[in-house]
Write a structure and sequence with these properties.
3 domains; Phosphate acetyl/butaryl transferase domain-containing protein; Phos_Acetyltrans/Butyryltrans; acyltransferase; six-stranded parallel β-sheet; P_AcTrfase_dom1; Rossmann fold; 18 helices; transferase; 479 residues
Length: 479
């Protein structure tokens, strides 16, 4: 067992640390975790020590016969140990396993970000996805060396047709400056935006300078299955979301995207909040759409969605125009998804406490405590999400984009390396889901795309909402 310990430490020392907290503890010095004369054993702050050394010792004890009760499932044991370090790991374990069912190509727009490269190292080691990095070749190669990540980089111009299968074990780098697909990409982007204020030269400029646009075009054309962007902010979230939605299109019947945040809280489990990103003052139809999209996303985590549409009012106790809007949204959701556990309008405490809810509405369709909270507007969603996160010390996963025809997510610039790893898994599993459902972009359908207003007009509405629902359903609910 001592030998197993030494071998595990030696193996770990030769692998680059993918945790930003380790380098931060040493003033951000990358040499502090690069194997060599100054780094012979892992640092005491390295979170991998627990999940690597303990399983190695346990396995040696079982192999030698010393252990009277050997661990039956070593992979699960390692996962449990990792959850002590990364609190989202135990919850995300099922999602990580799903990614291995069908490996998806996920393009990361900010390939020159150290956190992105560290997350890619984890993704490669754990088989979460086949990453594609957008960035300058020399910059990515330099960071790869400085961080000691030893990523097996492969550039598109060096991949032969006969070597395509073997290239899957490499990390592809998209350097648009000398990639032969450049012309195809800017022509495709212009074909989408030709009558939306974008000229051919502007299309070339965006493909050259905005990696979010480039990543979205790659996903649209099938050169990637999913995308992540946002670690290096260039434009506002809403402007970038509008561009992505215009390129990849919306799911059939969906008018606008939405954003959902997930908090994994100590002793409280996972709770989802929507819409934390997009619609400022949703009407009843929009709230219903947000609820349905968020419920589907919750199911991908292996959970049963229990949705509560929140308000200041409990089932009509505080009549107001907003209360009526939320109550109507709840009726619409029940009409469209009768098997979904959903109710509203209700106060937050009512959603969290079954006893309180039963005293107010004994026949509520929401049986258990809610795990999905649909907020009345963007202010309420953002404030409550951040407040709960801060007070509960909850670990964030997201934001998760809802409603697009392809798996495309815009993250926050403050996201950690582990947060990116989680989002790579979320993006990959959503791509699997969309492929299985046969979802395809519908850019030519004016009822399922983002607003055609100029992307450079700050006063233009972000997303049109007219005609997004079957008029007969809406009319029936109005009556």
């Amino acid at each position: 067992m001592k030998v197993a310990t030494v071998e595990a430490i030696a193996k770990l020392a030769r692998r680059a640390s993918t945790c930003d907290s380790v380098s931060a503890a040493y003033g951000g010095a990358t040499s502090a975790t690069d194997f060599g004369p100054l780094y012979l054993i892992p640092k005491p702050f390295d979170p991998r020590l627990l999940s690597e050394i303990a399983p190695a010792v346990a396995q040696a004890a079982a192999t030698s016969g010393v252990a009277s009760r050997p661990i039956a499932d070593m992979a699960r044991y390692k996962q449990q140990l990792t959850s002590f370090v990364y609190r989202t790991n135990l919850f995300m374990g099922q999602m990580f396993e799903k990614t291995k069912e069908s490996v998806q190509r996920v393009v990361l727009a900010e390939g020159e970000d150290a956190r992105v490269l560290q997350a890619v190292r984890v993704a490669v080691d754990e088989g979460i996805c086949a990453p594609i990095l957008i960035g300058r070749r020399e910059k990515i190669e330099l960071l790869n060396r400085q961080l000691g990540l030893k990523l097996p980089l492969r550039f598109h111009d060096s991949i032969d047709e006969e070597d395509q299968d073997g290239a899957q074990s490499f990390v592809e780098v998209m350097d648009i400056r000398n990639d032969p697909r450049y012309k195809r990409y800017h022509k495709e982007y212009f074909s989408i935006m030709a009558r939306k204020g974008i000229s051919p030269d502007t299309a070339k400029y965006h493909i050259n300078t905005n990696p979010t646009v480039l990543a979205a075009v790659m996903v649209r054309l099938g050169d990637a299955d999913a995308m992540l962007s946002g670690t290096i902010p260039r434009y506002s979230y809403h402007r970038e979301m509008q561009r992505v939605a215009s390129i990849v299109g919306m799911q059939p019947g969906v008018k606008f995207p939405a954003g959902m945040g997930l908090l994994v809280m100590p002793n409280r489990g996972a709770h989802f909040f929507a819409d934390t990103q997009v619609t400022q003052e949703p009407d009843a139809e929009q709230l219903a759409s947000i609820t349905l999209m968020a419920s589907e996303a919750v199911r991908r985590f292996g959970l049963t969605p229990r949705a509560a549409l929140l308000s200041h009012s409990n089932f009509g106790s505080g009549p107001s125009p907003k209360q009526e809007t939320i109550a109507r949204a709840a009726r619409l959701v029940r009409e469209l998804a009768p098997d979904l556990e959903v109710d509203g309008e209700m106060q937050a405490l009512t959603a969290l406490n079954k006893a309180v809810r039963d005293s107010r509405m004994p026949d509520s369709a929401l049986v258990g405590n809610a795990n999905l909270f649909v907020m009345p507007n963007l202010d309420a969603a953002s404030i409550s999400y951040q407040l709960v996160k801060g007070l509960s010390n909850g670990m964030e996963v997201g934001p998760i984009t809802l409603g697009l025809s392809r798996s495309a997510h815009l993250v926050h610039s403050a996201i950690s390396t582990r947060g990116l790893v989680n989002m790579l898994a979320v993006a990959a599993v959503e791509a699997q889901h969309l492929q299985a459902a046969g979802g395809t972009p519908r850019q030519d359908d004016p009822c399922t795309t983002a607003s055609s207003a100029s992307l450079d007009d700050p006063g233009a509405p972000l997303f049109s909402t007219a005609g997004s629902w079957d008029d007969s359903v809406v009319s029936a609910l109005n009556n």
